[in-house]
Amino acid sequence: MGVLSQIKQKALTVKEQLFPQTEFDAATLPWIDRTDANIDTFIKDYQPPFEVSYDLAEKLKFWQKNGYVVLEQAIQAELLNVFWSDVEELLENPTKYKIWTRIDLPQFDPVRERQIGEFPKEALKGKYVKLNDFHNLSVAGKKLMTHPAIVTFLDAIFQQKTVVMQSLTFLYGSQQPTHQDFPWVTAKMPSHLAAAWIPLEDIKIDSGPLYYYIGSHKMPKFNFGNGIVYNQRSTRTPLEFAEYLDKTCAELNYPKDTLLIKRGDVLIWHAALAHGGDIIGNPEQTRKSYVCHYSTEEALPFHRHRPAQKPITEHHNGVAIYNNPDFGDQENILKAGEKL
Fold first, then answer.
1. What gap in Å lies between CA 306 and CA 326, rounded to an integer?
2. What Cα–Cα distance (Å) separates residue 222 from each residue in 195, 234, 239, 277?
3. How far apart are CA 166 and CA 55, in angstroms?
4. N or C: which end of the chain has fewer CB within 10 A?
5. Where do the domains of the chain lie?
6. Which positions ≥6 away from 56 have C-beta within 8 Å?
7. Does pTM surpass 0.85?
8. DSSP secondary-structure letter at 179?
9. What is the pLDDT of residues 104-113, one digit of tens each?
10. Which residues 6+ apart lie within 8 Å of 245 measured at CB?
């Protein structure tokens, strides 16, 4: 690290210690998170980008109170089929493609995240595998993450141009401890974040299903010792974060629920909803899922891998998707979704 970088890091450390951010910035909160938010008034004037099958006002009120919504049977089977066929093509022929992949097993220490072709093929179909930003390769992935049912809800809660931050594709349950997304999936405005969890199969109780604490998006934020966002200067650990969330949710009487939704449903959750992955009860039971994180153009005007660079951008249903700057030649290489 150069002298200038060292000086910048020292300045950031001092600033964070003296003036840590302890809450979302009230001045830039999405409208629906503000204390004066009135959904009935909003709905009277709102012009949704697409017609949807659900009652938008009802879903917004549920979101405001609970920090999540389920859009029942919002996604057509054909799109899910094509997307999963693309995933299977990737896993059968990993050396043909470039995508960052993480396998959280000790045998891959010290580098658990690599290009997919650097992992043994058999390991890619096992547990603890996370395919990062598969949507950049797959046209079907882009269409799925920007489905009109999802886009309309995100447009309503953000009231700004929606952008895709990242996607994660799983075969099995993550078994991830309780967490909130905003400390890790970071934009310039941590409050400008939402996620969609799209099951590729009916979710079973023994598959390590997602769990969440209802209403926990309103709980006091955890301070990592230098504010609410985790980075290399933080003095408190992810384990302490998980312990804080479980303990505080219990103290505040936030009910813990388990997500057993069906293929075709979509869960959308708030940046601050506390959630995690349960223990896998049946080691043979998959939990195929596609997780997509979204922000706004104001909060994330760049690809997270190149914050100083203007991104190459595609638009799907009005949502901005940044091309992957690491693997430009791979963009939309899986084209089966073009027919949909």
1. 9
2. 20, 12, 12, 20
3. 28
4. N
5. 3-339
6. 43, 46, 48, 152, 153, 156
7. yes
8. B
9. 999 999 999 9
10. 178, 179, 180, 213, 216, 219, 222, 274
